[in-house]
């Protein structure tokens, strides 16, 4: 169902303009976006023994391949480790696991909508935006992956306490992305006035790609950043100080940072393939939590394969510790994050009923002897 609109209001017009710009920017260059993400380019990993199709295995749902998308972030550790350890390929049998890496949610949503990927690891704000823009027809959230791993890191020479944030320049990854929404909500709760679109106000919000934020911080063009791992730990390595861990703002210290999404078309046509990927995800999460050091090394190895550069220990170790790997999508926190986007003026009140379908995940969890998870009343009927 579409988000409710306040017809004729200036606020609604601004929000609509924001979303139209986002769609146009992505749609204008879909092929370029995929090329930049390196879709199908990681031949080194595909030829590794762990990625090879086992002899005698059969195709699932008659599919030649399942295309999986994720970000090169530690908050997407399930995808990184599952790929590196060959666990997705193991569950998919003779159906080839293919991969695409992304830098931003809108590009991954475009790839999902176009069929360039079938299943993806994705942050909550892009999932909400993708679902509401399509009027509830584009995707379903089918599982959880990670909680936490987001921090406010500042220059300690300029900012010594939270009250010193006023008047400073704070970076977030992208207008309307998960961390941008979180920071705008936090700033509002402190009593600061900030225009969400321009980022101007009592605090200046600078939208900066995670890849360039450490250089901007080092150069002094920003005073701090509200960012996910490993960017937060990179800033600390450059002399920054963690002023706030976002997990401290949530009940039980848990909030969704990464979900698993699937196109509704693929879910309807190939449920066995979806089940295989979810089974691999659950197995991967179990292995990560049982073998944290080995999993950390595996994630870093895949990051190196994807980006050409591994993370140094002084970045990898603290970043890894701040992320919780989970099968639970923490659905109640998704609803709260949507409310934050509405309060920030980036989203009209959305109708999220139907965004989840956790039936296959719960089937897998039951078979594994693990507890099932809740959709907080937002499941597809």
UniProtKB/TrEMBL annotation:
Record's keyword annotation contains Cell membrane: yes
What is the originating organism of this protein?
Answer: Streptomyces mangrovisoli
Q: Name one GO molecular function term.
A: ATPase-coupled transmembrane transporter activity
Name by which UniProt lists this protein = Sulfate ABC transporter substrate-binding protein
Give the record's family classification: Belongs to the bacterial solute-binding protein SsuA/TauA family.
Keyword field contains Membrane: yes
Q: Provide this UniProt record's keywords sorted from A to Z.
A: Cell inner membrane, Cell membrane, Membrane, Signal, Transport
Return the GO cellular component terms, semicolon-separated.
periplasmic space; plasma membrane
A Pfam entry, by short name: NMT1_2
Which parts of the chain are coiled coil? none
Q: Which domain of life is it from?
A: Bacteria
């Amino acid at each position: 169902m579409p988000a409710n609109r306040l017809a004729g209001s200036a606020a609604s017009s601004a929000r609509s303009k924001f979303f139209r710009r986002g769609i146009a920017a992505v749609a204008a260059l879909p092929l370029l976006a995929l090329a930049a993400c390196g879709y199908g380019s990681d031949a080194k990993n595909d030829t590794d023994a762990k990625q090879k199709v086992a002899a005698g295995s059969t195709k699932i749902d008659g599919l030649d391949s399942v295309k999986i998308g994720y970000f090169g972030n530690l908050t997407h550790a399930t995808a990184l480790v599952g790929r590196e350890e060959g666990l997705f390929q193991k569950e998919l049998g003779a159906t080839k696991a293919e991969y695409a890496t992304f830098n931003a949610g809108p590009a991954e949503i475009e790839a999902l909508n176009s069929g360039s990927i079938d299943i993806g690891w994705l942050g909550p704000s892009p999932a909400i935006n993708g679902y509401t823009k399509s009027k509830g027809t584009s995707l379903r959230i089918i599982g959880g992956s990670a909680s936490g791993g987001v921090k406010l890191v500042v220059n300690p020479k300029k900012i010594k306490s939270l009250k010193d944030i006023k008047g400073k320049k704070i970076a977030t990854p992208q207008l309307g992305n998960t961390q941008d929404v979180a920071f705008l909500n936090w700033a509002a709760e402190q009593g600061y006035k900030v225009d969400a679109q321009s980022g101007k106000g009592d605090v200046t919000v600078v939208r900066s790609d995670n890849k360039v934020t450490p250089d901007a911080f080092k150069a002094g063009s920003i005073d701090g950043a509200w960012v996910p791992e490993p960017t937060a730990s990179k800033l600390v390595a450059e002399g920054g100080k963690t002023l706030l861990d976002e997990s401290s703002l949530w009940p039980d210290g848990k909030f969704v940072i990464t979900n698993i999404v699937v196109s509704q078309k693929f879910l309807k046509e190939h449920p066995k393939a979806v089940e295989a990927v979810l089974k691999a995800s659950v197995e991967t999460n179990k292995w990560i939590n049982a073998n944290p050091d080995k999993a950390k090394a595996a994630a870093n190895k895949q990051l190196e394969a994807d980006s050409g550069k591994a993370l140094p220990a002084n970045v990898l170790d603290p970043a890894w510790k701040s992320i919780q790997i989970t099968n639970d999508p923490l659905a109640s926190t998704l609803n709260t994050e949507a409310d934050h986007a509405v309060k920030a003026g980036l989203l009209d009140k959305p109708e999220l009923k139907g965004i989840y379908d956790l039936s296959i995940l719960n089937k897998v969890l039951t078979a594994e002897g693990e507890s099932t998870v809740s959709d907080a009343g937002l499941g597809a009927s």
